[in-house]
Structure formats: structure tokens, C-alpha cells
């Protein structure tokens, strides 16, 4: 450690100054995260209307209600499928796009920039665009698909249970796949080129080179991205809520929308909190996989 | 040759997939109302018009929504940067007991479900008079922007060589003096990129904005724009004009600092 002289804080030992610098953020987390989280968990044991100043302690009643409720299990299944489908497709599409953008071609940096747009755009703009594209009466998607003969008649994409779920998934993939592109592209750029040279000399074909080198090199990054995306998509409220409101016939009713329905549609703060707490516990499970993986990495 | 053609073909396909919805948004915003509903649709406007942009400001409260959003997002970004930079620097440079665990908690905080926090935040903020308040909403945004800033800036500070700080300390600077005079000037690109991300995350946020603000005069852009959709008579030209303008801050940030953005996004994503 360097010897210091003068200055108003020079007498402080490093340890103290470090703590002082961390204090504002620690206080913020305490007030805005830890306390609300505890309060949310506490609320999950209450029966409390939104306007009710205190609520009544009901113990585990909200959880008993929850686990006996078919709509909860249905939403859990929908959320799992939603997270699985959007993350799986994002990973496949994002990796493919990263591989394309790793090739040299004219205008590459422009395309690289443009690909990020959906990810960075306001989610509400994205939703409004796709509402218009999907529109059953004058949506351009139906027009193009009918013209090219891929479908016989216009489809009401967002108002039939079957098509609604996958239409919502498509928007989720469109908006969030660029994240995967950026991360995978960054990883592709640091794969040593001599690996490919050596493989070529050994007579490995294009597919063998891709599987043995490229895929092998990016698989750790893909796993981490998949975990992070799973957490994010599982939490995602807006895409399905704004496109379909959870319908039709609850076909897109993910857990966050179920929380919203209970808490702000029916004003049941306790039940809404109980669902949110269960979501949180599931996410803690996924996070611990992530941390275990990081630990293995750093060893 | 074939390989190059294939690359261009795929790039074009990709461009269509990403850009067509954006093109359609801009295009629709520039078509007269009658043309928006025409079948077959026009892929270039037969008549170009700015009428939707004009009526957006004359007939709707878009200007107010935009300014409210700007205010909330700037406020929360400044707070996140001020608090987050100090914390990130401490995590990167000081030996503090338990700082690894703290770093993990920060990451955990970043992944907190909004659905879990929104209920207690509403109940608590109402007690404190922070609902229907721009300060309240920007504080709610700190729940994700502060962990983000700390996580990214910690890596950024860790990547700045320590020699310059040591030299400054030997020359008699205090630790804080070294942070202010030596480290921060080098960190400006990182701070800008991180700040832009924190701003855009807040700008795009919908749930907290919907729940914590019910006063029409204080409402921000995302929930405000959704009100323009009506089940009976939806003016898509107007809505696409609003969507286009709401995307403007992002497009501007992009034009200015694209290479920093990519760095910031990479750092925020995977580094553990």
C-alpha cells in the first residue's frame, strides 16, 4: 500500500473508505429491495385488499389456495413453456445470426448495429408494431401469407388460443434474440484461428470443424446465456400482457400476469404476493445453478 | 464465391426479419389514415404525410408523456450512476470483508422479478406519499438500474490499470482524489455506455409506470401510449407515429455511441 499524506480523508484506513463508498448503494438496496422483498413475503401471509391499511394474518391460507388452484398450475405450465420456447428459439436464432455476422461482408457493421434495435426499443413500441402486423383485418402479415399461398384465409393470430401463444412467443424471440447475438459474437471473436487451421490440416470437414471447434468453444457461454435468458423470460410480464392480456381463454396467462390479475385486477394483495414468492423461489433455484456454474468456471 | 453469395443471402434475410417491422412502423406513420387501411397495402406510401405527427402533439398528450418519461428516466439514471459508481469502485479496488458476497447479492438484485416487487412497492410508496410522484417512479427504477450500473462498472474499473492510481497516491493524492482525477476521466466511455443503458431500461419499463402512477398529468410514455389503442376506433397512423418517436432516444444513443453500447451490453450480460 502506498503511503499517503494530507487530504481530509487520508486518516481513514482502506477498509473504512471502501465501506463508506459502498454505504449509499447498500442503503438503497436495503430500502428499495430487501425491505420491500420482506414486506412482500409478509404480505403473502395476509388477506389484504389494496385499500386495506393492514390486512388480516391468515397464515398459509394463500399458499393452500394457490396449490389447490388449477389456474395456478396452468399458469406455471404456460410460464415454463413460454420461457423454454422463447429461450430455446433465441439461442438457436441468436447463434445462427452471430455466425452470419462473424463472416466478413460489406455493410456488416451496419447490419450488426441494426440487429440490436429490437432489443433496445421500448417494449410498448414493439407491441404496437406487432399488433398492427398481426391484425386480422388489415394486417400485412396475413396479406403476405395469403398472397404467397402459405395460408388460405387471414388468421386472427392473437385471438385464438392455439395461434395466440406462438404469436406471442414469436414477438418475445424477435425482441430479445439480439442479446444472444452480442454475447455469442463476442465469444466467436476470441476463438483462436489456428484451431481451425490445425483441423483443416487434419482433414476435418466444415461440419466437423463447426461441431468440434466452434460449438465446443461457445458452449459454456451458451449455457450461461440460456440461464440468464430463462430468468429474464420467466419474469417477463409485458409481452404477453400487452399483446393478449393473458388470453384468449388464459392461453398466454403467465405467472407474472397471474400476479397482476390477483393484485391489481381483484385487489387481492396477499394472493398476488404468494404467487410472486413462489416465482421467486423458482428463480432462486435457477440462480443457484448459475452460481454453481460460475464457481466451477473460476476453479 | 458461392460462400460469399450465401453470406449475403443470409444477411439480407436477417435484415428483412429485423428491419421489416421497423420499416412498417415508420411507413404507417407517414401514410394518410385512409391509406393505412387499404387492401392491398401499399409498401411505399402513395401519399406522404406528416399529419399523424402533427396531430400527435395537437390532439393528444404525447408531448407531456414524453417530457414526463424524460424527467423520470434522467433522474433515475443520475441517481443510479452517482450511487453505483462509488459502490462499483469500492468493489473493484478496496479490500472489504464480504465484498464477493455483496457482489453476488447485487447480481441477484438485478434479476429480481418486477412482479414480486411491484406489490410491496405500491403499498410502501403509498404510505410514504411516493405514488403519483416522478421521484417515486425513478426510485422504483433504481431497483434494476443500480445493480446494473454496479455490476458493469465494477468490471470496467477492474479493467483500468491500477498503476496510474498508485502513482497518484505516491504523489500525495487521497484515494478519493485519485478516483476523481485519475480513474473517472478514464472511465468516461464506460460511464456513458452504462448510463445510456440505465436510461433506456427505465425508458422502456412498463409495469412500475402503470402501477405507481395513476394521475393522468404525471403519466409516462409506455402506459400512456397503450391508451391510444382503442377496441373500436384505432388510429394506427397516429399510434405508429408515437411508436416511432418513442424509439427516437434509443436511435439517437445508437448513432452517437454504437461501439460503446456493444461493449456495455456484453459486459452487462455474461461476466460473472
Report on this structure:
The complex is a heterodimer of chains A (299) and B (272). In chain A, strands 1-2 form a two-stranded antiparallel sheet. Chain A is 73% helix and 1% strand. Chain A has 13 helices and 2 strands. Chain A has a single domain, classed as MetI-like (MetI-like fold). Chain A has 299 residues and is an all-alpha fold. Chain B is globular. Chains A and B meet through helix 1, helix 3, helix 4, helix 5 and helix 6 of A and helix 1, helix 4, helix 5, helix 6 and helix 7 of B.
Beta-strand portion of chain A reads: under 5%
Which consecutive residue ranges of chain A, at least 5 long each, have pLDDT under 50?
A: 1-11
Overall pLDDT metric of chain B? 87
Radius of gyration of chain B: 23 Å
Give a count of the beta strands of chain B, DSSP E runs of length 2 or more.
Answer: 0
Could you give a short account of the major beta sheet of chain B?
A: none
The named CATH superfamily of the domain at 61-227 and 247-269 in chain B: MetI-like
Contiguous helical run count of chain B = 12
Strand proportion of chain B, as a percent range, falls in under 5%
Which H/E pattern describes the elements of chain B?
Answer: HHHHHHHHHHHH
Q: State the helical fraction of chain B.
A: over 70%
Brief overview:
With 299 residues, chain A is an all-alpha fold.
Features:
heterodimer; A: 299 residues; mainly alpha; MetI-like fold; two-stranded antiparallel ribbon; 2 strands; globular; B: 272 residues; 77% helix; disordered C terminus
What is the fold's blueprint, element by element?
The complex is a heterodimer of chains A (299) and B (272).
Chain A: H1 14-43, E1 46-47, E2 56-57, H2 61-67, H3 70-102, H4 108-115, H5 117-120, H6 123-134, H7 140-147, H8 161-188, H9 193-201, H10 206-235, H11 238-244, H12 255-265, H13 269-298
Antiparallel strand pairs in A: 1-2
Helix pairs in contact in A: 2-13, 3-8, 3-10, 6-11, 8-10, 8-11, 10-13, 12-13
Chain B: H1 2-29, H2 33-36, H3 51-59, H4 62-93, H5 99-110, H6 114-128, H7 134-159, H8 163-170, H9 175-204, H10 207-212, H11 221-226, H12 236-269
Helix pairs in contact in B: 1-12, 3-12, 4-7, 4-9, 5-7, 7-9, 8-9, 9-12
